[in-house]
Amino acid sequence: MEIVRDMLADSEIPAIRHYHPGEIRVRQTSYQRSLIVTPRDVIEDWPPQVHTDLEEAHVARLLELDPRPEIILLGTGESQHFPPHAVMAPLFNAGVGVEIMTTEAACRTWNIVLTEDRRAAAALIIR
Predict the structure, then answer these.
(1) How does residue 123 score in pLDDT terms, banded at 50, 70 and 90?
(2) In whole angstroms, what is the distance from residue 111 CA to residue 75 CA?
(3) Cα–Cα distance between 93 and 109 in angstroms, integer?
(4) What is the structure's pLDDT at 55?
(5) Distance between the two ends of the chain, CA-based, in angstroms?
(6) Which of 32, 50, 85, 122 has the fewest CB atoms in 10 Å of its CB?
(7) What's the CA gap between 50 and 52, in Å, rounded?
(8) H helix intervals, the chain
(9) What is the pLDDT of residues 7-23, one digit of tens each?
(10) What phi, psi does 99 have (nearest 5°)?
(11) Nearest CA to 91 among 66, 41, 117, 56?
(12) What pLDDT, on the 0 to 100 scale, is given for residue 94?
């Protein structure tokens, strides 16, 4: 599915252009592994490749982003899966908002969040 908003089409910001299970295209680069996207950067090879791989250390990594996000879109693959509370605790304890959804929905939502100029990140599990 192509995911492009006209206002982001010619921009250098990391808009997500395409999502298909196993592939996410940010700007003109395709990724086949999970990643984190911020308004400034793409962080490749985020370790969890399926939702069951997600660990507290992976989530804690999101708190190290600069600037620290006020909201995180967590894409959990082709289906929505809510991680155990213990895994998500670092974000909850830090007061960071989390929206958990399919990776496809997180990709669509990311482009909207980009237009709002918010401190956000998208943590996208590829499968």
Answers:
(1) very high
(2) 14
(3) 24
(4) 97
(5) 15
(6) 85
(7) 6
(8) 56-62, 85-93, 103-115
(9) 556 567 899 999 999 99
(10) -115, 120
(11) 56
(12) 97
